[in-house]
């Protein structure tokens, strides 16, 4: 028997027949999407019809109907969807008979392991429940008869729809509040690495809410693309159910590759991008729809007051006309939106889309859906290069601050952004796998422009800053390093949009080097003259440095809370100050051997006098943690770096940066090692200095097995199921220091990582001059300046051998 036969065969209505037919249907590879969901709903209808007929006959109950509601009512059953069923009755059957009828229906469903949401009500009870419970009312809007007395449901549906339309002024604001609350709890689907396909904003719940708004006859959602977006999300959920074998709506990382294969996508990123596109369509439709609902409700509330003021006939019929205030040439404000003026001619004015966007963003107004769609259908393409007005309007739009986001997304939803900037299509809805990132690539670029708009008074060329913010990640999706790939793209866009050749070169340089300052400041030794000189050679001019500084901050702030802090800001500012001095003709501010401070000398003297480590702990508030500067002096001996790093890890201190120096005091025997650390307590408070010192003494004397303690700590943090981090990578970074060899370690952040690195370097017989630690999300990037025992850079072969040894220690 084929699956098509199974959907109509009622010869075996029992659980066994249904279960077998269901398995055959779900196992058919060619059938998927709406076809399979409808077939599964029909198969389930046939089974439940048989159950109902037998149960009604045996119990003698008449005047009852079995009703599908919710998703099942819409005929959309995913492989592991709940069955939402209502047993509707006329109230004449005996309660005991009705209970037996319900049991004969519900228990076979449970016996198959299917989830069931069920209720037993009369039509009057159903209406009363719907009046008290918005979710029940929403489910009844999709009610569909399965078996029994069809007249019962017909009357209920008519009454429920009438109630919904009559109560719409009160119920729709309640539904909108429910949608907002759900969005706050579950987030925005198109920006989540593990999105909830149903509950997150832009998901299936929002699509169902738009159907409910349409059923109210008060407003309707923009329909273009909406059905296709729902289908994509439902198809993805179907594949998720089949992949996991269980009900669920969260597209977890470990299942994305298998779901992508089931849905015919080449990889998980392509799947996510399509899911994000669908969510964007639903979110945009929701924004437009709820704005229209608000407008209609405000108009209804104002109408009685106007009639009272103007009399029954009004005054010349003008009372209801919306006022139109001019915003720009061809653009006016009407009813709280930016719309096209009556005299606007998009077919003759190619700059009009940018003029509409800039005017709306500056006024803080949403853009009319009708206006954007008219522009998409009628506006001529911009000439190349763009006229000066178009370029200036784009800069104005980008510089408007927070309102830019909604306006940009309205233009993007109708394809106007990709028409003006074809390169935008590559980054549109592109996911970013790094959990540090809050947004997709396209939204991150717009958010960076929003952040940069607050910094335009800090720079001499705010137009270049805003354009660089929009384009700095435009190379993502191209082969190779996105900064290098984006350089050529940015130059091409700059010339096309009307910037001169010199400005295009600056924009290309900003894109090429947009990570230079933060990477250098957090991973390189700023006291090494080669570090500052390398940045100065890349930046070349004070004006570019000024722009790059602002772009760096805007980029980090738009990335997410983990990407910027007071500590990173201070390091970048210090680097900018040093580079600016070099560009201004001053000597390199970095010194190979800066003079010891008075505190360092005091600590070194005390360490040599007592033969034990001494330390000083100076709290320094940080934006993201309780921070401190720690100075440690120890008589020169092996194992100092791993011992100190291990003790700090045991006390739950995160290392931000470390600097190690050997200090020989005149007139005294021996040398002291002086270590300066920037540390932070991610939670809780800083430990007492005396406890740190006591544990450090024990670690150096061998009384505290730091490695064993850290291993116990690490074992207490099990890795997430199914997520295997990439292996550590240790590389020798050439030509960044004339004083030392630089090793860069990229590894999953873990308890005691710097301790293990230090042990490996000690075993290799090299000295650590300084360490610069940067942690982004779950990944750490540590740069270590190492020398031979004689204090010189390592030979290339020796450096490669040391890098391999560290990699083995971390594997």
Automatic annotation (TrEMBL):
The protein's required cofactors: Mg(2+)
Keywords associated with the record: Hydrolase, Magnesium, Multifunctional enzyme, Nucleotidyltransferase, Repeat, Transferase
Annotated ACT domain residues: 742-811
Keyword match Hydrolase: yes
A matching Pfam family: NTP_transf_2
Domain spans labelled HD: 441-564
PANTHER family (alphabetical): BIFUNCTIONAL URIDYLYLTRANSFERASE/URIDYLYL-REMOVING ENZYME, BIFUNCTIONAL URIDYLYLTRANSFERASE_URIDYLYL-REMOVING ENZYME
Name of the molecule in the record: Bifunctional uridylyltransferase/uridylyl-removing enzyme
């Amino acid at each position: 028997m084929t699956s098509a036969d199974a959907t109509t065969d009622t010869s075996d209505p029992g659980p066994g027949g249904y279960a077998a037919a269901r398995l055959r249907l779900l196992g058919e590879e060619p059938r998927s999407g709406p076809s399979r969901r409808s077939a599964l709903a029909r198969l389930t209808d046939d089974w439940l019809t048989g159950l109902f007929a037998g149960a009604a006959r045996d119990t003698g109950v008449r005047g009852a109907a079995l009703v599908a509601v919710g998703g099942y009512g819409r005929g959309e059953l995913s492989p592991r969807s709940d069955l939402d069923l209502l047993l509707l009755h006329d109230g004449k059957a005996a309660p005991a008979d009705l209970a037996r009828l319900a049991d004969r229906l519900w228990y076979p469903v449970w016996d198959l392991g299917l989830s069931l949401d069920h209720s037993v009500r009369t039509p009057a009870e159903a209406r009363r429940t719907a009046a008290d419970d918005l979710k029940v009312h929403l489910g009844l809007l999709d009610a569909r008869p399965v078996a029994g007395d069809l007249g019962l449901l017909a009357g209920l549906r008519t009454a429920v729809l009438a109630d919904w339309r009559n109560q719409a002024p009160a119920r729709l604001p309640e539904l909108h509040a429910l949608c907002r609350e759900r969005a706050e709890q579950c987030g925005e689907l198109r920006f989540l690495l593990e999105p909830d396909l149903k509950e997150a904003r832009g998901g299936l719940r929002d699509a169902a809410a738009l159907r409910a708004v349409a059923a109210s006859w008060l407003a309707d959602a923009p329909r273009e693309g909406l059905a296709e977006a729902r289908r994509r999300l439902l198809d993805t959920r179907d594949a998720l159910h089949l992949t996991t074998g269980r009900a669920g709506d969260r597209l977890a990382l470990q299942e994305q590759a298998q779901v992508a294969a089931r849905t015919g996508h080449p990889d998980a990123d392509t799947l996510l991008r399509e899911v994000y596109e669908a969510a964007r369509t639903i979110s945009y439709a929701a924004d437009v729809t709820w704005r229209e609902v608000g407008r209609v409700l405000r108009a209804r509330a104002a109408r009685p007051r106007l009639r009272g003021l103007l009399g029954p006939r009004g005054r010349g019929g003008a009372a209801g006309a919306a006022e139109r205030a001019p915003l720009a040439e061809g653009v006016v404000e009407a009813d709280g939106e930016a719309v096209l003026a009556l005299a606007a001619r998009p077919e003759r004015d190619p700059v009009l889309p940018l003029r509409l966007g800039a005017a709306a963003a500056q006024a803080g107004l949403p853009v009319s859906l009708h206006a954007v769609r008219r522009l998409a259908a009628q506006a001529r393409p911009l000439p190349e290069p763009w006229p000066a007005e178009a370029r200036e309007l784009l800069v104005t739009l980008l510089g408007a601050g927070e309102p830019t986001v909604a306006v940009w997304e309205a233009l993007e939803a109708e394809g106007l952004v990709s028409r003006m900037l074809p390169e935008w299509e590559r980054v549109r809805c592109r996911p970013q796998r790094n959990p540090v990132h809050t947004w997709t690539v396209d939204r991150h670029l717009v958010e960076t422009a929003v952040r940069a708009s607050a910094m335009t008074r800090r720079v001499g060329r705010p137009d270049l800053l805003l354009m660089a913010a929009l384009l700095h990640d435009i190379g993502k999706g191209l082969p190779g390093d996105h900064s290098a790939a984006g350089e050529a793209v940015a130059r091409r866009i700059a010339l096309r949009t009307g910037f001169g050749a010199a400005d295009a070169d600056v924009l290309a340089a900003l894109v090429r080097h947009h990570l230079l300052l933060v990477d250098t400041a957090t991973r390189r030794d700023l006291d090494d003259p080669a570090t500052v000189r390398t940045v100065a050679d890349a930046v070349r001019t004070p004006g570019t440095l000024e722009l790059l500084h602002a772009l760096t901050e805007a980029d980090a702030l738009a990335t997410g809370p983990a990407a910027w802090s007071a500590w990173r800001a201070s390091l970048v500012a210090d680097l900018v100050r040093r580079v600016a001095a070099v560009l201004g003709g001053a000597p390199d501010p970095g010194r190979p051997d800066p003079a010891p401070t008075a505190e360092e000398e005091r600590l070194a003297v005390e360490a040599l006098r007592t033969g034990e480590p001494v330390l000083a702990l100076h709290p320094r508030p940080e934006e993201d943690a309780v921070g401190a500067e720690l100075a440690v002096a120890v008589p020169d001996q092996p194992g100092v770096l791993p011992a100190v790093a291990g003790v700090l890890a045991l006390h739950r201190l995160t290392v931000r940066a470390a600097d190690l120096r050997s200090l020989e005091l005149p007139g005294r025997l021996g040398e002291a090692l002086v270590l300066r650390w920037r540390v932070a307590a991610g939670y809780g408070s800083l430990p007492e200095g005396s406890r740190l010192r006591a544990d450090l003494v024990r670690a150096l004397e061998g009384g505290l097995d730091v490695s064993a303690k850290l291993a116990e700590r690490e074992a207490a943090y099990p890795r997430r199921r199914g997520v295997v981090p990439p292996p550590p990578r240790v590389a020798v970074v050439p030509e960044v220091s004339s004083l030392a060899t630089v090793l860069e370690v990229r590894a999953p952040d873990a308890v005691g990582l710097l301790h293990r690195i230090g042990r490996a370097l000690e075993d290799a017989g090299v000295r650590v001059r300084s360490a610069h630690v940067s942690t982004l999300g779950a990944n750490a990037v540590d740069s270590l300046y190492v020398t031979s025992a004689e204090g010189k850079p390592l030979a290339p072969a020796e450096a490669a051998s040391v890098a391999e040894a560290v990699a083995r220690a971390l594997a």
